[in-house]
Amino acid sequence: MPKSSRAEAKQASREALIKSAMELMPEKGLDVSLDELCAHAGYTRGAFYVHFKNRDELTLEVMTINGENWLNSIFRPQEDGEAEDLMTMVQRFLTEMVSGTYPITQKAGLRPHQLLEACARSEPIKQRYIELVSDSIRRLTANVKQSQDKNQLKNSIDPEQVASLLLGLAIGVHTMYDLDYPIDFAKGSMALLQLMSSSS
């Protein structure tokens, strides 16, 4: 087989394994068996170990793809490249949470405790999760600043601190929701935004 064909075949097997994980992990959890994952992809364990040292490396890859795709779907810049205001972003976030497209939900298949367990056993996964959290705070800070520029929020509050608190609240509220605790995302979010409103 020509060298280019071997490289293409190797890349194809990697992509198939990642695709398999992205399809099976939501249904069966992070600990889906490697045999099932490989069979679903149409490859052997040998092919798996060509690309990944262990399951955590594959989990890290899936987590990165899903996390970045989801962040890009939530934090959408305006046509001029500026960040949207906080209200617009929050409304989109609420829609995703309620619809189950948020990647760490019962409907999506990955539960908060599973992600935390993965972080506890794998330092690379933990660090990647922290990077995604930091990226979320950075983007959310831009949304807060945009709302302050529009006089929707108080200018006296630190936008980065607000972003950090909002993200922490979202993670906590999502955990409550995943426990089937009755909570109204929309009303809670509107109440919080009212507290921060420049007119309050």
Summarize the structure.
The chain is mainly alpha-helical and 200 residues long. It has helices at residues 3-28, 34-41, 45-51, 55-74, 86-99, 112-121, 123-149, 159-178, 185-196.
Q: Any overview of this molecule?
A:
This protein has 200 residues and is mostly helical. Helices cover 72% and strands 0% of the residues. The protein has helices at 3-28, 34-41, 45-51, 55-74, 86-99, 112-121, 123-149, 159-178, 185-196. α1 packs across α4 (55-74) and α7 (123-149) packs across α8 (159-178). The longest helix has 27 residues, at 123-149.
Key words describing this protein structure:
single chain, 200 residues, mainly alpha, 9 helices
Q: What spatial form do the alpha-carbon principal axes imply? A: elongated
Describe the main β-sheet briefly.
none
Quaternary status: single chain
- Poorly predicted regions are none
How far is the first residue's CA from the last residue's CA?
A: 70 Å
How many DSSP H or I helices?
Answer: 9
By secondary-structure content and strand pairing, the structural class works out as: mainly alpha
How helix-rich are the residues, as a percent range?
over 70%
Break the fold down into its secondary structure elements and pairings.
Blueprint (H helix, E strand, L loop, with lengths): L2 H26 L5 H8 L3 H7 L3 H20 L11 H14 L12 H10 L1 H27 L9 H20 L6 H12 L4
Helix pairs in contact: 1-2, 1-4, 4-7, 5-9, 6-7, 7-8
